[in-house]
């Protein structure tokens, strides 16, 4: 899969303030910043993102995606 396709899937499934994705065509890493993460723990945030790409993971079209999930406040604090 092309990184732009993965971004489109994530953005179609949730509102993102920031979305960065890098990968080699098989393995991808993303930073997902969304207000939808407020009040969710790390596992719940991951589940929220995985729901947006579940069909591609199940079909094997997308092999692996790791990601960092942040609220807008966390993202702002991290960036200093």
Automatic annotation (TrEMBL):
InterPro entries noted in UniProt: BolA, BolA-like_sf, BolA/IbaG_stress_morph_reg
Gene3D superfamilies with a match to the protein in the record: BolA-like (3.30.300.90)
Pfam families from the UniProt entry: BolA
Transmembrane portions of the chain: none
Family according to the record: Belongs to the BolA/IbaG family.
Protein name: BolA/IbaG family iron-sulfur metabolism protein
Originating organism: Candidatus Dechloromonas phosphorivorans
Organism classification: Bacteria, Pseudomonadati, Pseudomonadota, Betaproteobacteria, Rhodocyclales
């Amino acid at each position: 899969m092309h990184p732009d396709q993965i971004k489109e899937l994530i953005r179609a499934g949730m509102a993102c303030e920031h979305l960065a994705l890098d990968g080699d065509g098989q393995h991808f890493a993303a930073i997902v910043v969304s207000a939808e993460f407020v009040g969710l723990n790390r596992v719940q945030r991951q589940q929220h993102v995985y729901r947006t790409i579940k069909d591609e993971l199940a079909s094997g079209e997308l092999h692996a995606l790791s990601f960092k999930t942040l609220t807008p406040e966390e993202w702002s604090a991290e960036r200093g």
